[in-house]
Amino acid sequence: MSKILGIDLGTNSIGLAVRDTDKGNSFVEQLDFFSSVIFKSGVGTGTSGEFSYAAERTKKRSIRRLYQSRKYRIWATLELLIKNDCCPLSMEDLDKWRKYDKEKGLRRQYPIDAAEFEQWVRLDFDLDGKPDYTSPYALRAEIMQKQFDFTQQIDRFKLGRILYHIAQRRGFKSSKGETLKELSEAEITGELDFSTELKKSETKKSQKLVDFMEKNKEDICASFQKALIDILMDKLIKAAKQTGIKEITIGGGVSANSGLRNRIEEEGRKRGWNTYLPEFKFTTDNAAMIAIAGYYHYLAGERTSLDVSPVSRMADF
User: Fold this and answer.
1) 80 neighbors 73 (Cβ within 8 angstroms)
2) Count of alpha carbons within 13 Å of 303, Cβ hemisphere only?
3) Going by C-beta distance under 8 Å and a sequence separation of 6 or more, which residues neighbour residue 265?
């Protein structure tokens, strides 16, 4: 007896068959067993065609890992700077910021009460309440042109602030405006103000676009709104078809949009939906809640450095 197993692997299915060559002369007679298993597709369809769900998960996981590695890189840099008296932050405050233990109830706390560290971050090295440099890039330019005395604490703090900025940005300036190479080739005299140079470059390159947008802002806004509403309605119509749901409602700040409300009512009449649209007084946005929460934190004297990165969950802060 001679049997042959054939397997076909698809993107969301597996097919198999067993052929016994001792049974007759035709394939039908020799077919001993066949079956298939169909499972959830591993690919989706987007505006640019098919995409892999696994690749999307890997991409998002990579973003999270990049964010985590950036935080640990900053903390490791700060630890080194503190040990070498290049940063006014204490190790105790750094540990509160970087250590997290859910079981012990330890949550990361940014050192908002470390006044000298706050001024260091803001480039205020003489502690007069005003930044001494327009940007970290201006400080980095100065250290390339001027001899610093690292026996002086203020110069060590400046060096530390430069290294801290490099740890945050990996040493690369924004891709907007001139590149570092172009700037080095240009004739530079006196103080080098990177922020001013970037503003000049961006203004020059985008002036035509600014003029166009100013003249056509009503059309641009209307087109943008229509595109968003078309996307939302397309997904809503598909969801209603797949589930058979006929009761349709919307909520949140977006439900105040008259264009969206009109489209939902129009589609509801066409498709036999029962539509429920909230009164405008019930269409408040979450931004109002965030604003009032920030207002009371401000009244309580709680401050956060402008250097801190936004996070989606307080537990990660």
Assistant:
1) no
2) 11
3) 275, 277
Write the DSSP string, 33-50: EEEEEE---SEEEETTEE
Sorted by sequence, the CB contacts under 8 Å of residue 21 that are 6+ apart come out as: 2, 3, 4, 30
Work out whether the CA dihedral 65, 68, 70, 72 comes out positive or negative: negative
Report d(CA 171, CA 166) in Å as an integer: 4
Q: Which two tokens stand for residue 120?
A: 């260091």
> Which residue has tokens 């402008």?
306
Query: What angle separates helix 217-243 from helix 258-271, to the nearest 10 degrees?
Result: 30
pTM reported for the whole predicted model: 0.39
Q: What ranges make up the beta strands (E) of the chain? A: 3-9, 13-20, 31-38, 43-46, 49-52, 247-249, 274-276
CB-CB contact of 135 with 42 (8 Å): no
pLDDT (average), residues 48-53 = 68
Q: Tell me how far apart the alpha carbons of residues 265 and 276 are, in angstroms, rounded to a whole number.
A: 9
Taking only the tens place, the pLDDT of each residue in 183-205 is: 444 444 444 454 555 556 666 66
- Contact between 89 and 82 under an 8 Å Cβ cutoff? The reply is yes
Exposure string over 199-212, b if 16+ CB within 10 A, otherwise e: eeeeeeeeeeeeee
Contacting residues for 305 by C-beta, under 8 A, at least 6 apart: 110, 112, 118, 121, 122
Q: Out of 104-118, 156-170, 277-291, pick the least confident.
A: 277-291
Please, what is the Cα angle at 224 between 220 and 226, to 5 degrees? 120
Q: Is the Cα torsion angle 91, 96, 98, 104 positive or negative in sign?
A: positive
